[in-house]
Batch of 3 targets.
Target 1
Amino acid sequence: MILRRLFRYLKPQSATLFLAVLFLLLAIAADLAGPLLIKNFIDDYLIPRSFPLSALFRLGGGYLLLLLAAAVFTYLELIYFQKLALRVIQQLRIDVFSHVQRLGTAFFDQTPAGVLVSRITNDTEAVKELFVNVLAALGKNSLFVLGVFAAMLFLDRELGLICLAVLPLILVLMAVYNKLSLPIFRVLRRKLGEINTHLNESLQGMGIIQALGRQKKLIAEFDALNQAYYQNTVKSIVLGSLMLWSAVDFICFLLLALVLSTFGIFTRSGLAEIGVLYAFINYIFRLFDPIKGMIQQLPQFQQALVSAERVFGLLDDPRLAPGKTGGLNPVIRQGQVEFRGVSFAYDDENTVLKNISFTVNPGQTAALVGHTGSGKSTVANLLFGFYRPQAGEIMLDGAALPEYDEKELRAKLGLVPQDPFLFAGDIKHNIGLGNPRAGQEEIVAAAQFVGAHDFIAKLPAGYDEKMSERGATLSGGQRQLLSFARAILANPRILVLDEATASIDTETETAIQNALAKVRRGRTTIVIAHRLSTIQEADQILVFRQGEIVERGTHQELLAGRGLYYKLYLLQQGDS
Ligand code: ATP
Ligand code: MG
């Protein structure tokens, strides 16, 4: 199954494959012709005990030529097989990576990044080994073995047949080894993935780990993983030494004994057969090198198969990002947002949103407030199509969300996420992501507009200041301001601002508030607010409790209603 899929990748490379196999056959032929040359020499000159110098030179020269030819062909054949493997693996990596990009948020919620990195790098690398080893080594060696048998049969039919009799023995050995080692290698691969995940998580969360003083516990976990890895490796080595080396050597000498005794017992014409005997012994020794080589490759072959399984498993992962339906390509012009009886659960069990309905008219501002975990960010996740609701519909300008083209949505909808993500690169690059066509001036203008310019200007390198991974050198508020500038740069019709929960200093908070007051004009805005002071101007305020909208209205109306909003408001007034 897996091999068939892998071979599909070979098809486009058939020219390279052809050359590789051609050079391989030539190399084998040159290699196997040597003993025949010597056998003829023995037959023609050694037995009559008269060898003229010229014949000796001819033998030496011929042998040298054969060696040279074998070396050149082997070189070419190696290059072509490597080329082939590298091309295949390149295509496979591209396929895996582009598939991963199409996967939905649900997939990434459930898959640790370390596992993914391991799939895309280690596992594809192992698949490359599969090509180099299976095609080059297994294929090469089996061709070589076939060549040896052909030469043997050509030399002496009966002796050749006797040698052929060991072949099933070796095949059985290989099959048994295969069967026993597969589960071990599967565990090995999984453990390696776990070790990667563990490392990745620990490194990313090192600050928290140190703050919580959990270093010891993490080391213990890491130790346990490594111990399991070690034990399985030992198991595989024990199995390999027993099944491969000892058993194969045994068969080799068994065969040698068999050939020699057959020869001794049934010698037909004595001396005349010395040349054949020489060639046979030479071939028998040559026979077991490739066989050992093949068996030696089996572990890697196994690992590679397991890796290939995992790579193709990833390629087949069905958790794709929700796609577009229908052939219409509606365009967002007004920017009206409507939720119609939307219910949603991330895991099909715990309902996070229950029958949510609301409408935000073009140019209006709606604010979502409520306790932590009440489902506010989830509303944004659905609006952006990261997940599909199980019930209900989300309409934009009167058309259902799934009917929109991805491009249209990304162009007209802007999101300032609760936990903004910054990429390694400078500030300019991070803001510029909002609109690839924007130049320096537009980037600065966007930063000024949202009030991020002041703090950027104070950085040593200004807009060229390099960000470390995830923007760890900036405060939470500063990151959100950058993310805000990024969203504004695209000039979206509909803007969703998910206020950072992180404590933001008053200065940054004022900057965000001022920016919000400006960006609201002329576009539909949804603000998910934790500081109620931010949203008193909103056209409507939706109060969430455990996935339901329990109150709605303007600031004044809600205060007058003396419900949940009133309580939240009083609490926050008390704070400040
Ligand atoms: P906060 O004010 O803290 O930002 P919120 O109102 O934005 O809270 P949500 O992020 O919408 O809350 O989360 C609502 C519920 O959904 C929570 O119970 C949370 O545990 C759950 N949840 C959020 N994201 C996921 C996810 N990716 N997978 C599974 N469950 C999730
Ligand atoms: Mg949230």
Target 2
Amino acid sequence: MKKIGLTTLLCTTLTWAALAAAPLQAAEVVVYSARNEQLIKPLFDAYTKETGVKINFITDKEGPLMQRLKAEGKNTPADMLITVDAGNLWQAAQEGLLKPVNSGVLKKNIPAHLSDPKNQWFGLSVRARTLFYNTQKIKAADLDSYEDLADPKWKGRLCLRTSKKVYNQSLVATLIAEHGVEKAEQIVRGWVANLATAPFPDDTKMLEAVAAGQCDVGIANTYYYGRLMEKSPELPLAIFWANQKSNGVHVNVSGAGITQYAKHEKEAVKLLEWLSSDKAQNLFADVNMEFPANPQIKPDATVAAWGSFKSNNMNIAKAGELQIEAVKLMDRAGYK
Ligand code: FE
């Protein structure tokens, strides 16, 4: 809540003359963000510097932010919701918390498969969820795809993060979309049978286990690998782009939508368009070693050094649509 009070403060300190010259109502956007403060504040500062528009924001986990939007209803001060994972954005749209935005700028800047088909949210950065392996134990040539990790040859050699994380729910949702429930369940059962140890609470711990040789291979988002290697470049850990011979690497987004009851809708749409533009895309993606969602923009040098890859261009709204199905499937398959 701490930053919401800013407008009130400004109103009481500005003179009447200043108020007449610059209507405060128009020069503000209120954002609820599940993306960390350190990842979004530099962007908002740059936007304010460029346009003079103030951005008041709060950060929290997506659950509490969506609860809050629901509870506030028409009275919400929030104009924009930023979250990670399309599953969460889909959920927010499903609950009627977002409104469609018809913007030529957003359509031009953000590929269709990274946005809601009904234009209620737009991906702003891409996170790739792929395979990571211990270079002292196996070679890249040993690896192939998410599906291949279900093969009995990987018995006792696979590490995974918990199925409770939305990232894995989204990954399994895309497997369902591609293969159908039955085949997807076989794959997940295969993963469970191949686990070297119980699933990890986060991607970093999972990657550390691969690096320590507790398992040969695991699945994680690339920016966790980036952070870990920045800290410990000596680790025998490498990236492998999954499914290059088939549908491509599973990608997800960090993205945003305009709230159903936005009080500064026009200004919020302008901010969203700016976030998709060349001016902001590197700022948005690079701070977390993600890929810009706008294909015209190059990723930062560290990220680019991981090499180029084919990504799965299934619309990521599928991750939301099939999320409940995915959770049930992982439960049946004994994936904890
Ligand atoms: Fe993450």
Target 3
Amino acid sequence: MYSDKIHEVWLVTGSQHLYGPKTLEQVAANSQQIAQSLDNSPAISVRVVFKAVVKTPSEILQICREANNAENCIGLICWMHTFSPAKMWIGGLQTLTKPFLHLHTQFNREIPWDAIDMDFMNLNQAAHGDREFGFIGTRLELRRKVVVGHWQDAEVLRQVDVWCRAALTHNEMQTTKVARFGDNMRDVAVTEGNKVSAQITFGYSVYGYGVGDLVKVVNEMSDGDVDSLVSRYMDEYKVAGHLKETREYSQIREAARIELGMRTFLEDGGFTAFTTTFEDLNGLTQLPGLACQRLMNDGYGFGAEGDWKTAALVRAMKIMSGGMKGGTSFMEDYTYHLPENGTDMVLGAHMLEVCPSISTQTPKLEIHPLGIGGKADPVRLVFDAAAGAALNATVVDLGKRYRMLINEVDGVVPEKRLPNLPVAQALWIPRPNLKVSAASWIYGGGAHHTVFSQAVTTEHLQDYCEIAGIECCVIDKNTDVASFKEKLRYNHLFYSLL
Ligand code: MN
């Protein structure tokens, strides 16, 4: 669904006419080689296309206008092989609406000690040319990523790819549509927010539907399609014997009908993210659990209780991590483990809707009463999340602006079995520990709903926030509460002055 060889970043090399045609030909040939190398690299997940050596203000303006209008172009990589006086860049950079990465590299890896002469010096000028370019970016207060190092280094490729994934996500979010089946869970504050502001900042748009609109489509699904989906469930999951008996089997069929209806509704409307709410199920016989889990596993964004911000963020992080190892899921900090030995842990789960992508187990298909909501017992997949490094992220609506909070965590395997837990779960130790993590998260206004990902890294999200222009606060192994609070205060002041 996401491995992307359609979208492009354009390598644009800055220079000037001062050096004469021969040097400029060399600049173009070298740029071509770098672009080709990035494009061929399996480490870079989008196309990299060499576009031009720009030498005048009008050439720079023209390439920026072209980038703005090119549907497949998700951003620019700019590099000054030689010096390129940056007053020439003002018009173009002020016009550019796509994100850009400043690749501070040099064509020649090493100084040829015996052979170095003024020709070499005049060609390999990035050391000062890129600083001139950097100045004008800062002078214009432009958001961008600066990556430093030789263009063949693995670490450079990694950083470039992280940014490409953020740019790709930003690009995708401009046309993303979120469907809301029902409204927010009543009186919940953090799942509310301003949808117009969100669209202006992130690009995605949110469409509300009555649950009846969905029920109508669910009821139109054919019995034959329902039966074949049920038999796929039976093949893909561990299904207890008694579930094949009549009463439970009819509920599995009902879950399949809901999945088919939701899928059809979302596909027909061009939606790639959605929300449900258990307070509003009119006409749906059970809270959609299995359907949400399977749709998330296929790359859809999901938020429970009407949480459209988290639904959009799940979708964003699914795109960001396309083809990468590890899963991404809607998540909720559910309950704590606070042993006397101090290794405090969080058990993350939800009523039903955790994405099986975060597990390496074959999920068990189960039916249990919900306990709240007063509907038929919903069908769900039950599994344990895989252990290892992960993170939780949330987007907070602060009224006038948005803040992303990220907490790096270490997923762990429970020491004991949880035979009576009827939902999928993830267990983690937050970095640096629960005390610092939770206090910082709470001071930052972070939601109880998050996106849990074993694939997306802090750097992906930082790059994405930089492109979207929102605050990004990280809680990691180095965080202490006092400094974190101070950072929130300084950031508040900074964003108030913008
Ligand atoms: Mn919830």
